[in-house]
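Repro:
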Amino acid sequence: MEQKGVRTAVIKHAHHGIDIDVTNDSGKLFRGGIPLVLTVCDDVEIVYRRNSSPRSLNQIIAEVAPYADLIITEGYKKAGYPAVEVLRKDISTEYLNLPSIIARVADFKVDDGKGTIKVFAFEQIEELTDYLLKFFNI
C-alpha cells in the first residue's frame, strides 16, 4: 500500500502475550518493571507501555488514525470492522461465517456456496491491494 501512496498501519492482537526481547537494554528495563520505555532513533521509535487495563480496539484506532490512511488489524475477528480472512490448508480449511468478511486469501479453493466474497491467492498481492483500495474508496 505504501508504494501507492497509502499510509498504512497494522494493529496486531497478541492473545498469547508478547515476548519482550531482553537481550537489549529497553527490553531489560521494561521487564524490570519500568511502565514506559521508548527506544528512539532518527527514523524509528519503539514504545513499550504497560496498560492498567485492556484498551479497546476503538481506543487503539483513535491513537493510530492520525498516522494512517488505512489501518489493518489482525486478531480482532468479531470487532465488526471489514475483514480479510486468511486461510491456510495446513491450519484449517474452515472459514469464518461473519458478515464483516469482505475478502479471503487462501492457498486452496474456497467456495462458500454464495460466491459473494472475493477470494485471492497469496500471490495476488497487487489484485488484493487494488480491491481494498477500491472497497475503501482510497
